[in-house]
Every structure is written in structure tokens, then in C-alpha cells.
Specification:
- The structure is a single chain.
- The chain is 72% helix and 0% strand.
- With 217 residues, it is mainly alpha-helical.
Length: 217
């Protein structure tokens, strides 16, 4: 039956990027859990798992891990789309270990750099001391890093328009409103671009022109 064939293809695709979809499944469970919490409890619960300055100073390893297991805002479906479009493609291309290395590098380094910038702003009197408790949770830094490294998945000259769009999407918000989260996202993209050594030897880059030619027969 065609249904069985379609389900078989979907399962084969999921298995080809198992790390992505295991992570996505964890995010689904934690998002459902958030929907069963009261707003007051949820806010305090997430803050304890946030990579803000206060929690990083207490237990950095714990919050760097737990912050990547929750979505701030409670909308899982958009992340399912983004994970399929970006994370799954990167994992299938790089392999699970290299993909995970990009995710960890972007998540950890961008967090430390952005929170370090916020700490300096507090010390300089630019930001209030309460900013040390700001909620900073989610998976967007790792996603931005993967978006960056996927530049090398695309063959030249097509990769350059892709890179331009990526830099605009992440660079304009940072230039317009240089918050610590905007800085973190922009730094994450740069970290992804710096992961070029992990992209070496991962096969021929994808050429959109060849794909279009194949579709036209």
C-alpha cells in the first residue's frame, strides 16, 4: 500500500537524522509539560534551568544542558519544521558526531559570550543588576550555528546568496537592537561558519541547478 511506503520513507528519513528527532521528541515532551504548569510556576521553573548569569555562576554544566531541553514560548510545531529543514539536513550531511559538535559549540560558546557581554554591561552600569536573572533558555543558538555551517553544504556560487540572507536575518536585529540574545544569535552563526573544518570531506556540495535539471527530467 502507498501509505505503508510513505510511512517507510518517513521512518527511513528519521533514522538518517536520529539525533535531530530524538532531541525534537524531548522538546515535545518538555513542551507538553510546560502547558500543564501554572504561569507562575513555569516562570520560576524555567529560570532555574536558564543560562542566565546567576545560574551559570552556580552550576554552569547543569544549566547549559537543561536549557537546551526546553522551548521558551511553548510552540513546538515551528521547531519541528526548523529542525527538519536545518538540523536534519546538517546531521545527514555531517554525521551525528560532527553535527552535535557544531550544536554544542554554538550553544555553549554563544551563551558564554553573550552572558559575558551582559555581565560587563551590568558592571558598567549600562544594564540593571536584575539582568543577571534574565530568562535565557531554548535551542536557538544551536540552530543558528547549524544554519551557519550549512553554508558549506551548498555549492558555489549558490552558497553566497544563502550566506547573505543568513547574515541579514541574524545581523540586522543585532545592529538595530544589540541585546545579549541578538549578540548570541549572531555569534552562533559565526561559530557555525568557523566549523568549516568539520565540513571537509563530507561529499560533494549540493547544487540547486543540478536538482532543478533532474526534476525537469
Amino acid at each position: 500500500m502507498w501509505v505503508k511506503r510513505v510511512l517507510g520513507r518517513i521512518w527511513a528519513y528519521v533514522r538518517s537524522a536520529l539525533g535531530t528527532y530524538v532531541w525534537l521528541a524531548v522538546l515535545f515532551v518538555t513542551t507538553v509539560a510546560l502547558h500543564h504548569m501554572s504561569p507562575e510556576f513555569e516562570k520560576d521553573f524555567l529560570r532555574q534551568r536558564s543560562t542566565n548569569i546567576h545560574e551559570l555562576s552556580r552550576d554552569p554544566v547543569r544549566v547549559l544542558i537543561t536549557s537546551a531541553m526546553w522551548i521558551d514560548g511553548g510552540y513546538w510545531l515551528p521547531y519541528a519544521v526548523l529542525y527538519t529543514v536545518f538540523h536534519a539536513q546538517a546531521e545527514r550531511w555531517l554525521g551525528t558526531l560532527r553535527w552535535l559538535a557544531v550544536c554544542v559549540a554554538a550553544h555553549v560558546l554563544a551563551t558564554l559570550i553573550s552572558e559575558g557581554a551582559l555581565l560587563k554591561a551590568i558592571h558598567d552600569g549600562v544594564a540593571p543588576h536584575s539582568a543577571a536573572y534574565t530568562l535565557d533558555i531554548g535551542v536557538s543558538y544551536a540552530l543558528a550555528g547549524v544554519v551557519g555551517v550549512l553554508t558549506y553544504r551548498i555549492a558555489a556560487p549558490w552558497r553566497y546568496p544563502y550566506l547573505a540572507v543568513v547574515l541579514i536575518v541574524y545581523g540586522v536585529p543585532f545592529a538595530a537592537s544589540p541585546t545579549f540574545t541578538a549578540l548570541g544569535h549572531f555569534v552562533s552563526v559565526l561559530i557555525g561558519l568557523a566549523c568549516f573544518p568539520l565540513a571537509r570531506g563530507r561529499g560533494k556540495p549540493w547544487n540547486p541547478k543540478e536538482t532543478l535539471a533532474a526534476l525537469r527530467g
